[in-house]
Amino acid sequence: MLPNPIPELAPQLKQLRLSGILDSLETRNRQALEGKLAYTEFLAMLIGDEIARRESKKFAMRLRRAQFRTTKTLEQFDFDRIPKLNRQLVHELASGRYLNEKAPVLIVGPSGIGKSHLAQALGHCAVRQGLDVAFTTCAALTQSLNAARATGSYERKLAALARVPLLVIDDYGLKPLRPPADEDLHDLIAERYEQAPIIVTSNLDFDEWDQAFACNRLLASATIDRLRHNAYCLELTGPSYRDPRVPPPSKKAPQDKPGNASK
């Protein structure tokens, strides 16, 4: 019987950082012996295991870097609650259509309707397709840019946000944009315009978006004009996910009828 080479191979595979092969080596070796596989078939299986491990690791890292608030996916999205939503368009977007076009996706609707879920689900799809994604609220985004200005790293921060393959901005217009937040948002949108895709959610109707800019309507017009150019617009209407649950009616104890009182 030939000696078992696995103990000798293990440290070599670790040195080469081929953990995917190391983890499945015994199983694949047994399959090769039982199936009388050719050497090339055995090697192909091992290489496939290593590629799968590396892709899984990259996916997990991209998911962590995205900083989604939840792990909401498109498979979990309840389309039946929003019957007027264009499902075909949503699935086309999930396939990466807007990513290739470097086009914005704008999602509006009342609070609790599922805007953030849908935005994060599309971001999750992009992560699956191998893209780096950054998720943030509009307030947190402008605060981070202002904080970078205070430390002299504003340009570097702005450039980093401009380079992210997909940027998801949640809750646009939830808080009024005052200087320098309005200018910072405009600069970022201008940097990404026709260069990189962006997803924006808002409680405001599309014709109310300029109202988020509290002081400078000219800046609002320039920013929104870039956002809406060639954008895919999704309007969500329906019941809120956050509606309180109505408790079942309490059962009242039967009352004695007149004349039945105990004597």
Automatic annotation (TrEMBL):
GO terms for molecular function: ATP binding. Residues 238-263 are annotated as: Disordered. SUPFAM superfamilies: P-loop containing nucleoside triphosphate hydrolases. The keyword ATP-binding applies. The keyword ATP-binding applies. Keywords: ATP-binding, Nucleotide-binding. Residues 101-234 form the AAA+ ATPase domain. It holds the Pfam family IstB_IS21. GO terms for biological process: DNA replication. Belongs to the IS21/IS1162 putative ATP-binding protein family. PANTHER family: ATP-BINDING PROTEIN RV3427C IN INSERTION SEQUENCE-RELATED (PTHR30050:SF4), CHROMOSOMAL REPLICATION INITIATOR PROTEIN DNAA (PTHR30050). This is ATP-binding protein. It comes from Azohydromonas caseinilytica.
